[in-house]
Each structure stands twice: as structure tokens, then as C-alpha cells.
Amino acid sequence: MLIVGTWGALLLYIVSWISGLFASPHNEPSGSNAWSEVTVMRVAWFIHSVTLLGLLWTKSVWPTTFVSDILSVAAWASMVGVQAFPERLPSLVNISIVRLFVILLLGLSLF
Q1: Could you tell me where the DSSP H helices lie in 22-110?
Q2: Global confidence as pTM
């Protein structure tokens, strides 16, 4: 069930990333596209948080699963940064690149 949660979070991160790519910067931020992008991202982050806690608590055997655990924690921490600093982060880096980085990290942690 934890793997299904990780795959679900990965799928929702991809949906949020694609939705963010097609959002126009000239539209008002309260539009339905921006709302769905933020909501899907937060739901994916919540699923990822619960799944990560479950994986680290029950399935983690540290010499064996160290790399996948570190990749998943790095992806989780990157999404915390995206959500914690929504106004400041775009001036430092491109948000869509950070989301793509999270998708790649979480995808690599599954294999």
C-alpha cells in the first residue's frame, strides 16, 4: 500500500507540474487553473508525507534502502520549499524546474 501511495503522489506531482506549465502568468492568481495546481500539489505532498513516514517507520532497512530513502526525503524537502516560499522562490529559481526535480527524485526512489 505504501508503494501505491508513492506512485499516487508521483502521479499527482506530474499533474500539478503540467498544470503549472500551462498556467498563464497574466491571469489572476485566483483562477481555476491556479487553484487546481495548488490543490493537487498540496494533496500530493500530503500523500507523499504520509507514505514517507510509513516507509521510514515500517519498511526502511538502512543499509539496503538508504539511497531510495534519501531521494524521497530530498523530494519531500524540495516540495516543502516550494510551498513555504511561494513568492520568494520564483526570484531565485524557476518553480517548474524544482517540481521537475521532485518528480525525478521521487521516480528514482521507486527503482
Answers
A1: 32-54, 62-84, 89-92, 95-109
A2: 0.79
